[in-house]
Amino acid sequence: MTTNKQHHHSHDHHHHPESQWSAKAKAIESLLIEKGIVSSDAISSVVQRYETNIGPMHGAKVIAKAWKDPDFKKRLLEDSETVLRELGYFGLQGEHIKVVENTETVQNVVCCTLCSCYPWPLLGLPPAWYKEPAYRSRIVKEPRKVLKEFGLELSDSTEIRVWDSSAEIRYIVLPQRPSGTENMTEEELAEIVTRDSMIGVAKVEVPMANV
Ligand code: FE
């Protein structure tokens, strides 16, 4: 097995199961394509599906439940790990997940400055930009500017909290529930919670029909 360049930092406790997995996955992928068993397009579409549908929907369900149920939300914020484990969200890349809450005056945003740690069981695979060195370094140094580039313009009085994920702990943002969603069911709410809102680079928008 080759050495992963991402490991060349001095953070002892920062293990990288994902890089070993991705090296293995790449090897298997190449073999399958070479043998003509699957096309690279088929693999891309599976990855795409995992990135945009399967993963984030889990997180979205948790967020919607927290919006609907104050007791659940309180427990979720106080002891994310236990509550998420009860719901079956744990395992690879999800051993220790903490939920952080946005408010009128606080916007939380998640990154991994060293590599690409991410709460897989709740959000699926990280988007490409999350793994880019530019995002990982700039979100810490100039979060307000980076969020603006994502289309999220915050007032000067909004405090931005940047959470640096690691193998020990990964974060997910509990976005603010938008007004105009009072009559929506938990299932309907889960449908409007986006991946980006749970990373903290976007707000949840009210669907047009409810405006
Ligand atoms: Fe990482």
What does this structure look like?
With 211 residues, the protein is mainly alpha-helical. It has a single domain, classed as Nitrile hydratase alpha /Thiocyanate hydrolase gamma (Nitrile Hydratase, Chain A, Alpha-Beta Complex), CATH 3.90.330.10. Helix content is 47%, strand content 10%. The chain contains ten helices and four strands. The strands form two sheets. The chain has a two-stranded parallel ribbon with strand order 1-4. A two-stranded parallel sheet has the order 2-3. Helix 2 (40-68) crosses helix 3, helix 2 (40-68) packs across helix 9 and helix 3 packs across helix 4. It starts with 16 loop residues before the first helix and ends in a 12-residue tail after the last helix. The model is unreliable at 1-16 (pLDDT under 50). Bound molecules: fe (iii) ion. Fe (iii) ion binds next to loops.
